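Course assignment 3, question 2. Fill in each field.
Student: A.L.
Task: Predict the tertiary structure for the chain below.
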Amino acid sequence: MKKKATKPESAGVNPASTKEKTWEVKGGWTFLSNHTHVLVCLFRNPDVTLREVASRVGITERMVQKIVAELVENNFAEVTRVGRRNTYRIRTDLHLRHRLESHRTIGELLQLLDP
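Answer field:
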């Protein structure tokens, strides 16, 4: 005789009302890109290490290095060496890249995400 499958205890419960991480949603996608997540981390804490950013964003340190290099290459971020660490400055005056958002600046996006 087959055992009837049971629903998990959290089935039918609003995820926002549980202690589950809200970013762990079906399909694993989010509304913001990893570039945006890295940008937010650097803006909130200019002295953060890339290892810490990787941990917070949920991607590899190597991917964070690649994203930071792209942000620097396109002048959206500046890196200054302070002793053995880097400090990051985000160019909040620059406009977003996609034509749907190009009328807005990085500063406006960051203000929206971190008022």
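Instructor remarks: The radius of gyration is 19 Å. Strands lie at 77-82, 85-90.
Grade: pending
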